[in-house]
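User: I'll paste a sequence; please echo it back and then give the predicted structure.

Assistant: Echoing your sequence first, then the prediction.
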Amino acid sequence: MLLSRHQVLGRRERDPGRLERSAYLLLSRIDTQGPMSIGQLAEAFGLDASTVNRQTAALLRCGLAERVADPDGGMARKLRITAEGGRRLAADREANRSCLARVIADWSPEEVGELEDVLVRLNRSAEALEGRYWPRAEDDGAPAAGHPAPLRESAPRAT
């Protein structure tokens, strides 16, 4: 909770134009998975479709997402992230990484690796309990424990 509060407070102080939490989460999912319908987003987050409809309406009004025909030929229209949505999402991700980097600036590479391993385990355990897995890029092409492998954005460390 402290880390989240640290990021939220830093977000408001430095840039009031940062994405709202719901916008960040929805755009992240669409960015990772590709165009999604309101129903797919509602299912992915375990939310009521009316809630997701309100949140996606805000994305559409701000030009962060757009409605497109289903690329797979389905009947439902899907939401796709726009260039502006991608730019804002990338900027927010970088600000979040920067905030975390300041928090762990004096940690050793081993300590950072330990944190990463425990957070991956924590996330996977929470996902397993909910039955909702976040899509991730594959490290070695083999999903772990029946669901996608974690995304490693830093260079692999020696173990």
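Confidence is low (pLDDT under 50) at residues 139-159. The chain is about 55% helix and 5% strand.
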